[in-house]
């Protein structure tokens, strides 16, 4: 009966592609110390030495970026003078809602720059340190775009980031979508079959009240 209660929720999680999905979620969850070093170097080269340098490790990285000022300077540095997308205050904001607002402005500017939704972190990921790996992912995407655009605003070693292969990516997602539809179809089929095979007592409403 335990399985019977769990199965509807499990079905909602959508298709999982076995190994590749598992590896992917590990990568998504994992905060990468080496990546941190590369991102710190890039931010310092891109923004100039006055942004300082964080303490090593996830917490140091979080504290360094948390008030949104360095992130804002970073995205501004990818634009020519006179068209910077984010207003950076003279004094770093000390009030929490102001800091969150600053981070939100960075996120909006990063999206306008071309970072796709799935690569964007949420403000709480950074603010509460919920998912610093997601913050890294956003910065990697931003760096990759800057290298790909090759418009003279990227500073640093281009090899720090992979160029984004737009065309290949689109075909790839198309085939993934097909695969996804197929897997979901199968899952729905088996769930339907299972629910009629005595799990819910031949179509009677399930009695979960104990």
TrEMBL record:
Any Pfam family: Calponin
SMART domains in the record: CH
Primary localization class, coarse: cytoplasm
Subcellular location: Cytoplasm
InterPro entries from the UniProt entry: Calponin-like (IPR050606), Calponin_repeat (IPR000557), CH_dom (IPR001715), CH_dom_sf (IPR036872), SM22_calponin (IPR003096)
Keywords: Acetylation, Cytoplasm, Muscle protein
A single GO BP: epithelial cell differentiation
PANTHER family the UniProt entry points to: CALPONIN, TRANSGELIN
Stated name of the protein: Transgelin
Lineage: Eukaryota, Metazoa, Chordata, Craniata, Vertebrata
Gene (name only): TAGLN
């Amino acid at each position: 009966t335990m399985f019977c209660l769990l199965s509807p929720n499990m079905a909602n999680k959508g298709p999982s592609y076995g190994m590749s999905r598992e590896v992917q979620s590990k990568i998504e969850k994992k905060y990468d110390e080496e990546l941190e070093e590369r991102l710190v170097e890039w931010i310092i080269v891109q923004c100039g030495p006055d942004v300082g340098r964080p303490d090593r490790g996830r917490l140091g990285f979080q504290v360094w970026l948390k008030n949104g000022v360095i992130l804002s300077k970073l995205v501004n540095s990818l634009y020519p003078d006179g068209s910077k997308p984010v207003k950076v205050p003279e004094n770093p904001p000390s009030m929490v809602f102001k800091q969150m607002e600053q981070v939100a402005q960075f996120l909006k500017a990063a999206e306008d720059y071309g970072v796709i939704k799935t690569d964007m972190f949420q403000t709480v990921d950074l603010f509460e340190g919920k998912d610093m790996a997601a913050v890294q992912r956003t910065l990697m995407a931003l760096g990759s775009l800057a290298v790909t655009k090759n418009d003279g605003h990227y500073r640093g070693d281009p090899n720090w980031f992979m160029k984004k292969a737009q065309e290949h990516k689109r075909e790839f997602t198309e085939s993934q979508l097909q695969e996804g539809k197929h897997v979901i179809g199968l899952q729905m089929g088996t769930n339907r079959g299972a629910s009629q095979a005595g799990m819910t007592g031949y179509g009677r409403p399930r009695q979960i009240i104990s």
